[in-house]
């Protein structure tokens, strides 16, 4: 979905396909047929943007066979789908029964991460619509905090890899005329946990094609103020490459038994749900929601927020809620000003099947309805900010 910003530029809105498990190229094609095109039809749009997730095997198949890449581009066109951004964070296995810490490997100290991201950049340059010259890719924020923090050589290795990537992106732009930019995506528990943590390493890299991806669920989970965070990035000259529109789980009174019971329904075995609370002594955290609930890892006299991407249009029932207000505030700062801070927005609720059983979509139709409802909410927020939806 495309929108005209009051400054005349085009802002793209998509939804991320990592909600649909697929490790192979055949799986990607099935996503387009079974999910993406039905969502587009529900929205009544001739064209729908998708934030494509290409796992390692799918990316390699496309990289090794130009005919397959051309065929995928043609299929996107025929189904009324367009790709301006990729989710390069998960490498493989994102549809496994247990993902947890595996999603952070390989990290930016490992050669496979650089090779995979380079492949994604080259693929995206070929998949961009003819009238679009800029693509974006989100990636993990260097590494999970351990063992990175105990390896004195890790920061230099990661910086070298990102610098090499930037040089490759420059060469790609010269060759294709397409500018591909990469955004580190701060996430609780990682080496770059907050937007503030991103400033130093990105300043060290010092390249316009390497910036940040602001995920509003992660921002909220870390209790970051959107205005303060975005102002600091602007002051430091760090570009907001893209933003993922998502909402975290919020518990205002975690000490109450009924709140603990409600939270326990979201403590599931597949994904890691880092949980944070802000106290007078600073931010306190647990690596997973289960640890916070039963392990006593967090004080419960102040609100908790958990890294659980809840559907934008359907916050959980009381006594829980979502951090949609943080998303609204962040979006206002991102695209509500005289000039947009980013032109690529992506709805990224990948946890539909991790929701409590009674909230999960039971059919493809229900999932498509839910994704369409999220995109409709995001569209309405953009229109309210003065952006005009384009055909």
Question: In what order do the strands lie side by side in the largest sheet?
Answer: 2-3-4-5-6-7-8-14
From the spread of the alpha carbons, the general shape counts as: globular
* Proportion of residues in extended strands: 15-25%
Helix content: 40-55%
Structural write-up:
With 391 residues, this protein is of the alpha/beta class. Helices cover 41% and strands 20% of the residues. It is built from 13 helices and 15 strands. An eight-stranded parallel beta barrel has the order 2-3-4-5-6-7-8-14, surrounded by seven helices. A five-stranded antiparallel sheet has the order 11-10-12-9-13. β4, α4 and β5 (134-139) form a beta-alpha-beta unit. α2 (56-64) packs across α3 (66-78), α2 (56-64) crosses α4 and α4 (111-127) packs parallel to α6 (154-176). The radius of gyration is 20 Å and the shape is globular. The chain starts with a strand and ends with a strand.
Can you summarize this structure?
By secondary structure, the protein is α/β, with parallel strands linked by helices.
Please name the defining characteristics of this protein.
single chain, 391 residues, alpha/beta, 5-stranded antiparallel beta sheet, 13 helices, globular
């Amino acid at each position: 979905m495309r929108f005209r910003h009051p400054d005349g530029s085009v802002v793209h809105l998509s939804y991320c396909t990592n909600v649909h498990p697929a490790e192979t190229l055949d799986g990607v094609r099935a996503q387009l047929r079974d999910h993406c095109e039905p969502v587009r039809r529900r929205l009544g749009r001739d064209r729908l943007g998708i934030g494509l997730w290409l796992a390692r095997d799918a990316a390699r198949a496309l990289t090794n066979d130009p005919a397959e890449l051309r065929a995928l581009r043609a299929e996107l066109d025929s189904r009324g789908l367009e790709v301006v951004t990729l989710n390069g964070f998960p490498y493989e296995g994102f549809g496994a029964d247990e993902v947890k810490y595996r999603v952070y490997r390989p990290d930016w100290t490992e050669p496979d991460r650089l090779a995979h991201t380079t492949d994604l950049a080259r693929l995206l340059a070929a998949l961009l619509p003819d009238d679009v010259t800029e693509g974006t890719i989100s990636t993990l924020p260097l590494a999970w905090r351990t063992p990175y923090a105990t390896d004195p050589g890790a920061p230099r290795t990661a910086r070298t890899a990102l610098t090499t990537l930037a040089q490759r992106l420059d060469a790609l732009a010269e060759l294709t005329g397409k500018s591909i930019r990469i955004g580190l995506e701060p996430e609780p528990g990682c080496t770059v946990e907050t937007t503030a943590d991103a400033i130093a390493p990105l300043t060290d890299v010092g390249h316009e094609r390497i910036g940040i991806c602001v995920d509003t669920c992660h921002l909220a989970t870390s209790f970051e103020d959107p205005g303060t965070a975005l102002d600091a990035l602007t002051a430091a000259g760090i570009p907001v490459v893209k933003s993922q529109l998502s909402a975290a789980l919020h518990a205002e009174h975690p000490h109450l038994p009924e709140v603990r019971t409600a939270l326990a329904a979201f403590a599931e075995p597949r994904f890691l749900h880092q949980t944070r609370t802000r106290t007078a002594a600073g931010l306190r955290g647990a690596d997973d929601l289960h640890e916070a609930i039963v392990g006593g890892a967090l004080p419960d006299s102040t609100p908790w927020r958990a890294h659980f991407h809840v559907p934008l249009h359907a916050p959980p029932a009381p006594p829980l809620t979502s951090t949609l207000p943080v998303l609204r505030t962040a979006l206002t700062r991102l695209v509500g000003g005289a000039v947009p801070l980013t032109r690529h927005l992506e709805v990224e609720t990948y946890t539909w099947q991790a929701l409590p059983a009674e909230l999960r979509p039971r059919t493809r139709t229900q999932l498509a309805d839910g994704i369409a409802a999220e995109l409709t909410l995001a569209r309405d927020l953009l229109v309210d900010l003065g952006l005009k939806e384009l055909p």
